[in-house]
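quick one, 92 residues, struct below
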Amino acid sequence: MEELRTLLIYDIQDDRIRLRVSETCLDYGLARIQFSAFLGTLNRNKREELFLKLSTILDSNAGKILLQPICHKDVKDTLLKENAKADEAGAV
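---
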């Protein structure tokens, strides 16, 4: 089964639920790219399984979860600008 780059972002108010969601993303091998955003490679079954788990965690609490597979062409066309923090870049 083909694996695709997968972007998962969420907006969840409850700290406890937000922590459970982030831990679950890490359990599936996704890497945190922002406070509420994860990126990794998953096949269709794993994406569906992850989404069901996260939906169960969120239950009827306020929040949103977006799980977006990204095709190979779009991954190839991805642009990224990232600067290190001043203290990480060796600046005084």
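The first helix runs from residue 15 to 27.
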